[in-house]
């Protein structure tokens, strides 16, 4: 802001320890260089605050701009102005949507609003974005119309925000919009199929976390293909980085993937009895969170929805049963009782004689031999001096191998299901003339305990943020140039240094891969190397005072502490080959198909980032594996997978495939089970939404919201 004289009575914003910002009036003319200025707060109190180094406190906007539907129309665009405007729109106008130039900012209302019906779709259809109130449908309409106007100009909508902020809900609204506007002329049910893919993907890829009861644990990019008349003629989905550790472990209050609970809850249905399921409380893989229910969700009804959706997509009931067999088998595998034996517990065994019931059911459901599986769950083959030896595994190793197998089977099934859905969504009539892509990537997240999964998710978000910064910033400046407006180069905080810390040479991933290649590599050694390399060198890397096995990354959205424990194993992500060979020879067609195409030691066909590497004999020790982290980095370099999507949109990109971007940024107004904290939440993601605005000026200690304000948010209808 240019420092100039400002007069008595002018409205300014001053930091407040409780309300974040409060408005006040100047009681004296301001002259550049003044250190203090008397002000009067709206409650009548007088103060004489020290002025910030930049001069005056942020100036208030004229009353006439109160509740403006585009933030860029505000005379003064700074943090208090943004917060105040979003608050006024939310509380006084009941509007959760606001434009910020080309970006739609959405607040998650955490309540059903009557603004998504067909009549609203009709109202937005064919209208110009500038003539309509901000809405997710206005972005969808703009995207659709631009695509129709300049056919073959592909479009994409990027939806970003923290976990639980409402990305998936918004993605579904956009897809519904396209299904309605692009479906009328069609006889086919393509649009119905596109919508039906949602419940299936949610059943197998979403789970309850402490942040969100229906959290997507994978990234999704769906491309909806349109014909020359603007009608939907097909779709294709790509998925990224499924959180497969959830299959075998859940933190307190969290759940495994919904589909497991749907099946357990429906176990008494006659056709599901062969699955030999029990209550979810009785399976190790579904009960670690100690709360198998979701308030307000009936898992029996949900399974019904999942099955209907499968049917709409052409997956026949017998094939659905094959899928359910595999899912149930995973639960039984988790209950297989592996016991330590031998001197010092250096061996393990599964008591097949005493009939480990879980193993028997697992084997039967997957069409394999129980005794064979028991043998290869407790032993591994090793190549020593040109000979193959069989080495027993300790109880712990065998349990880990069992979990690795469970995760691998689930991942293969997930990948297969996506391919299966894609084949139903593919058009056979004609090639799409253009497409609209919707990117619903897992949101930035931080929990009490953060591990490798959060690290990968937050890294992907860091990349997405960079694309966002650069794209929005560049567009803004291009517009100034086009309109020949005078402008100074606006500095925005680029997050490249943080990305370099993660993916650069000797960065966190590089060192992790190096440690994974060491015969005696350990999480502790890796942590030490990180401290040596980055502590006091990168401003984005910190060490927690009380721990030698954790590190902190200062991300664009938040500081996150990661526990090193488990990083090496998760990054290596190895599965032993012998149990896979048994599955490959399964009598079940689907099971055999799932494992048929993968080659030992290589990556899986069409797999997501979280693909596993299969370990067999000697190669397992010598070869550099395609670790998960390494793949993320590779992708960053070779424009594949997650980062391919992001890179595709780089304006400077010389890739031929160019698309126009449409951004939707979502802010979580209240976290699950907590009172709404509008200002707090908007504030936390402030640099995320408005990277080109000045950074916040008040300290974290001043961010508490007063009780009175929380109640007024709660009362909003
Ligand atoms: N527009 C909306 N209207 C009403 N409720 C909403 C809206 N958007 C989100 N919600 C609520 O917020 C919850 C979380 O939303 P959603 O699952 O879309 O979050 P997300 O950003 O996709 O989270 P994650 O990254 O964890 O997958 C929803 O289950 C719903 O209750």
UniProtKB/TrEMBL annotation:
Name of the molecule in the record: Methyl-CpG binding domain protein 3b
Entry-linked SMART domains: MYSc
UniProt keyword ATP-binding present: yes
PANTHER family given in the database record: MYOSIN, UNCONVENTIONAL MYOSIN-VB ISOFORM X2
Residues at which ATP binds: 161-168
Start and end residues of each Myosin motor domain: 66-717
Provenance organism: Sinocyclocheilus rhinocerous
InterPro entries assigned: Kinesin_motor_dom_sf, Myosin_head_motor_dom-like, P-loop_NTPase
Any matching Pfam family: Myosin_head
An example molecular function term from Gene Ontology annotations: actin filament binding
GO biological process: actin filament organization; system development
Gene Ontology CC annotations of this record: cytoplasm; membrane; myosin complex
Highest taxon above the source species: Eukaryota
Keywords, alphabetical: Actin-binding, ATP-binding, Motor protein, Myosin, Nucleotide-binding
